[in-house]
Amino acid sequence: MTHFVLFFLFLNILSIGWSKSDADYPVYLRGMNWANVEEHLQEDLSLSDAIIPTNYIIDLSVNARGYGGADKSTFNGSVVIDMNFTRSTNSIELHSRGLTIQKVSIIGSRIDSAPLSVVNITHNKNRESIILLINRTIIANEEMILEIHYNGSSDLSEYGLHEIWNPDPIEPRFVLATNNFPTGARFWFPSFDEPAKRAQFQLRIDHSTEINGFSNM
Ligand SMILES: *[C@@H]1O[C@H](CO)[C@@H](O)[C@H](O)[C@H]1NC(C)=O
Ligand SMILES: *[C@@H]1O[C@H](CO)[C@@H](O)[C@H](O)[C@H]1NC(C)=O
Ligand SMILES: *[C@@H]1O[C@H](CO)[C@@H](O)[C@H](O)[C@H]1NC(C)=O
Ligand SMILES: *[C@@H]1O[C@H](CO)[C@@H](O)[C@H](O)[C@H]1NC(C)=O
Ligand SMILES: *[C@@H]1O[C@H](CO)[C@@H](O)[C@H](O)[C@H]1NC(C)=O
């Protein structure tokens, strides 16, 4: 009986012409009808595993709407990222969404050959990333420290660094808060915004003395 049922299913799959079955996909993609998802949506959006970020120093100035004369919530700052390379590459792709990238520089490196610099920055909207082209190939085991200056804006979008209004008539409250899950970090600082790319973080916030800053980092 069991054999018959399996055989029947097998024929059924063949007869509707599936070229791939669930078993052809990695375990984490099974059970989601992935084979029938349009091809352009199956594109692998993950970043290169050649680059391991090890430390971030985020320095952020925030202007919160209604405080210190600000008529909208904006932020600007810099992120300094230490990176190790496990394979050779001549580009660095990291996430950034809705941010204006002002300046990118290499401020330090432990290098095994010639000096290097960022020669081109391209934005990939689809991948929510920026791609930094380096003027030579970085080889495995080199390390590099990158500094990116950027700015952005906050709204009520519930994502990234966003505004929250609590219009309580007795105690109205305005909060500017981060929501990083699952891919919100890239909305407020350029980063390797993937769970596998863990690193240490230091955060410094400049803000109006009228508001308080808190962090659970
Ligand atoms: C944000 O921009 C202001 C004005 O240009 C500048 O003074 C400040 O240092 C910047 N903040 C950071 C954290 O870079
Ligand atoms: C990065 O490279 C340095 C020097 O090779 C090494 O000490 C450190 O453990 C590496 N860190 C990671 C997270 O791979
Ligand atoms: C890359 O840029 C650095 C800094 O400008 C420069 O010193 C180096 O010679 C350049 N390397 C190549 C291969 O062009
Ligand atoms: C940067 O690279 C992109 C894509 O390769 C290219 O279209 C663009 O012209 C380059 N920009 C500069 C300033 O070299
Ligand atoms: C970054 O700052 C510039 C200059 O003030 C502004 O035009 C731009 O809209 C800002 N970017 C974002 C994403 O808010």
Structure, briefly:
With 217 residues, the protein is mainly beta.
Unique bound compounds: 2-acetamido-2-deoxy-beta-D-glucopyranose
Which radius of gyration do the C-alpha atoms yield? 23 Å
What would CATH call the architecture of the largest domain? Sandwich
Number of domains: 2
Along the chain, the helix and strand elements come as HEEEEEEEEEE
The proportion of strand residues reads 35-45%
How many beta strands in the DSSP annotation? Answer: 10
CATH classification, class level of the largest domain: Mainly Beta
Helix content: under 10%
How many DSSP helices?
Answer: 1
CATH fold group of the largest domain: Immunoglobulin-like
> In angstroms, what separates the terminal alpha carbons?
58 Å
Low confidence ranges: 4-18
Structural class: mainly beta
Task: Give the averaged pLDDT, no decimals.
Answer: 88
C-alpha geometry = globular
Strand order of the largest sheet: 4-7-2-1-10
Keywords: Signal
Domain Aminopeptidase N-like N-terminal: 53-217
Pfam family, one: Peptidase_M1_N
Organism: Pristionchus fissidentatus
